[in-house]
Design a protein that fits this description.
1 helix, mainly beta, elongated, 3-stranded antiparallel β-sheet
Length: 65
């Protein structure tokens, strides 16, 4: 038998799932089920869509002037 633990009220549970912004799989805040075997997340850690929206991007080694 498996035991399911839930986050306390006010806490966000982190989980692996699919990000609707970038359509990638990764770690984020649990946002609900997609189907019987997949979960949706929000606040995807290192989401490429989020980096572009905030203007953050990696500097290439050649651009250090």
């Amino acid at each position: 038998m498996s035991t399911i633990t839930h986050a306390a009220d006010g806490e966000d549970a982190h989980a692996f799932g699919y990000c609707p912004s970038c359509r990638g799989y990764g770690l984020g805040t649990y946002d609900g089920p997609i189907n019987s075997h997949s979960d949706r997340i929000r606040d995807h850690v290192n989401c490429p869509s989020r980096r572009q929206a905030t203007g953050a991007r990696r500097r290439s080694p050649r651009s250090r002037r």
